[in-house]
Amino acid sequence: MAKSIRPYHQPAGGWGALKSMGTALVEQHIAVSGMATLARMNQPDGFDCPGCGWGEPKHTSRFEYCENGGKAVAWEATTKRCTPAFFSAHTVSDLARLSDYELEMEGRLTHPLRYDAASDRYQPVSWDDAFALVAQHLKALPDPDMAEFYTSGRASNEAAFLYQLFAREFGTNNFPDCSNMCHEATSVGLPPSIGVGKGTVVIEDFDRADCILIFGQNPGTNSPRMMTELRNASRRGAAILSFNPFRERALERFQSPQSVVEMATLSSTPISSRLYQVKIGGDVALIKGLMKCLVEADAAARREHRQPVLDWNFIRGHTAGLHALLADLEATSWDAIERRSGIARADIAAAAAVYAKADRAILVYGMGITQHRHGTKNVQQLANLALLRGNVGREGAGICPVRGHSNVQGDRTVGITEIPSDALLDGLKARFGFEPPRAFGHNVVAALQAMLRGDVRVFIGLGGNFAAAIPDWTQTQAAMRKLDLTVHIATKLNRSHLVHGRDALILPCLGRTERDLQATGLQAVTVEDTMSMVHASRGHNAPASSDLRSEPAIIAGMARATLGASSKVDWEARIADYALIRDDIEAVFPIFQGFNERIRQPGGFHLNSLARERIWATPTGKANFLVCAGLCEDDAEADDAMLWLTTVRSHDQYNTTLYSLSDRYRGVYGQRDVIFLNAGEMAKRGLEADDRVDIITLSNDGIERAVRGFLVVPYAFPDGGCAAYYPETNPLIPLYAHDPESFTPASKGIPVRLVRVAPSRTAG
Ligand SMILES: Nc1nc2c(c(=O)[nH]1)N[C@H]1C(S)=C(S)[C@@H](COP(=O)(O)OP(=O)(O)OC[C@H]3O[C@@H](n4cnc5c(=O)[nH]c(N)nc54)[C@H](O)[C@@H]3O)O[C@H]1N2
Ligand SMILES: Nc1nc2c(c(=O)[nH]1)N[C@H]1C(S)=C(S)[C@@H](COP(=O)(O)OP(=O)(O)OC[C@H]3O[C@@H](n4cnc5c(=O)[nH]c(N)nc54)[C@H](O)[C@@H]3O)O[C@H]1N2
Ligand SMILES: [Mo]
């Protein structure tokens, strides 16, 4: 697609979405078979969409998929193959010059590969030799904590459980996880507040809510199936308010590809009643402003003997800490709130009035909230806002963190965590009879810090694209190259396979759309969505190559080779029949009681969340209002030229996977090296549309971090901020720029300055 910038004026969704999905199928050479595959997606007997973690309404509708789910399936079900012949034709240094887009467009990996330093090529290796190499390196470590076991959130519950079992029997709790870069602020922030680290709503709650607040989340792109709920809510007359620096198109107007009428008449549904363009990092200020309005309105209502605005029955019966919160709100000036949030007091008051009027409200949020140095504080202030009106543990109301990967939540539930509870470790010990390590392990930031210190020798990645997803590439990728062994269990070639250790393996696995045949027959796996619904997933496609193995089988192969005969786990039996793994999960985690039985119910089953029942598993036994001092100005240097940079996803990418170089809803075509900022900020810097700039981090450790030659795109964006795409801007994110509580990298709040590139450099 030719490079251009053309503002988009259509509603989101609609014919553009169908056309784009069709193009994705054709590009992967699967137009006809692709449609058959899609028909099985999210159906009772089919596979779970490998795209996002949004829930499905009971798996009933005939075509329960969306544009981007369709692209995720096309990406996996492609007929293109990346074979040993391809690797023998290219050195790894050559491959490193290809773009991320080109690497993945080579298609599905077909054969296990081992890096050969003499020829600088990946060469075929047998599965047994690959497992033996893993074992050799792991057994050579003086300390099991010198290995890192990374997980990306597509792994099934069965694969994730076996993976943590292997690593813990081997002797470490080092589980850096994609979730550490994603919703960790939720996992850390919500438990002290409401007693669970997950959301409290189920999908049916969206049918009953009067009001939906959406903070820092872009559903039209990243969880398009959520648009069905939002569209229905909007048509019922529910108020939808969005708080986002971008005017995301799908938050304004949506044409449902599943509505015959909208598609035929080219009509569409307005989504947000109002969109508030909050400044980058201004959410704590905004939320404190909203709470201040509620408290003021409540005082006025009580003076005038009208119905109170705060839910006093709930507050008195179920919460602790209100007085400290009130004192903090009192001490926060409107001046400071307006300055930091970028939203006028009158506008905040209008939003608060809508929220105050709603009997049942859902508070939705995404990466705009979690990926900040104050991500945990953001999450907790948002919970305060919900608690003030008793919007937790009631039908049609609740807190809804929208998870990313399709099973990232399940992976955590079944034990992928670097900070295991005693209950988890005791459960493993009781079931398997080995002594699991008790010391806490590494999250992503800690793993990278350990690599930089030289304290890590082996990295194993269960899916994902670690080297591209992490911050601070120049430093962190250099550290990865010094490892003794890197192992990637993957479906497609990506950057991480090229940023390799001295020894390196690529182990190709089955995808979710494919048949998984083991000794006792075809296997199903299970996943948990963002609403805590657990259900089975069965692939129907023929595997991309006869040399692929399933993720559980690869993990078992590594485990058997490493732990040998002394292992307490019968790995073969579990691979022959995954139902045995589910029995293990049930034995270790009592909430999975009746697991194998319950996944036979169509639509699966719900993992109970105590907060939904207003049982508060917190130290006070109550839901806690938690105070954060100030407005989270973070520690940016006072610098006039400074802008906050937020790194976001385009409409045509899945994390580090690029489906194309365009971003339809933001009007960007054929390119990704662009930076969005507003006319005022451009004028201040003497910039014009089409200028190119270097983006330079205001680092406080003396290391220069820059990306070069980005095209300036004027955009109605709040003052003081700019936006660019992830992962191209990951070199700008210092490893130290993370939330000190959850260790989430601050991908949505990096202080930068811009330097105009001399036209002579642009000309060529
Ligand atoms: N098609 C597709 N689907 C996906 C993914 C994908 O890449 N492609 N990724 C998956 C994964 S792993 C995840 S975690 C989710 C991510 O889904 P989202 O949470 O939607 O992630 P982002 O696009 O990174 O950013 C979300 C929004 O935050 C806004 N934002 C940026 N900074 C701020 C801020 O300071 N305050 C506020 N209030 N808003 C801000 C951005 O403008 C953007 O609209 O989607 C999942 N689904
Ligand atoms: N600057 C910045 N950085 C970010 C973010 C941001 O918003 N801004 N977002 C962060 C977030 S929210 C996340 S979740 C991480 C994502 O980090 P990761 O989860 O590590 O990255 P992905 O891009 O999702 O991984 C894509 C790769 O997964 C492999 N894969 C796909 N399907 C399968 C499968 O079924 N099995 C196996 N084994 N492999 C498979 C393919 O080889 C593919 O190349 O990035 C984080 N990094
Ligand atoms: Mo994510």
From TrEMBL:
Keyword Membrane among UniProt keywords: no
GO MF term (any one): molybdenum ion binding
Domain Molybdopterin dinucleotide-binding residues, every copy: 643-748
InterPro entries the UniProt entry points to: Asp_de-COase-like_dom_sf, MopB_CT_YdeP, MoPterin_dinucl-bd_dom, Mopterin_OxRdtase, Mopterin_OxRdtse_a_bac, Prok_molybdopt-oxidoreductase, YdeP_MopB
UniProt entry tagged with the keyword Mitochondrion: no
GO biological process: cellular respiration
Gene3D superfamilies (UniProt xref): 3.40.50.740, Dimethylsulfoxide Reductase, domain 2 (3.40.228.10)
CC per GO annotation: membrane; oxidoreductase complex
Cofactor(s) needed by this chain: [4Fe-4S] cluster; Mo-bis(molybdopterin guanine dinucleotide)
Keywords: 4Fe-4S, Iron, Iron-sulfur, Metal-binding, Molybdenum, Oxidoreductase
Domain (Molybdopterin oxidoreductase) ranges: 108-431
Name of protein: Oxidoreductase alpha (Molybdopterin) subunit
Protein family membership: Belongs to the prokaryotic molybdopterin-containing oxidoreductase family.
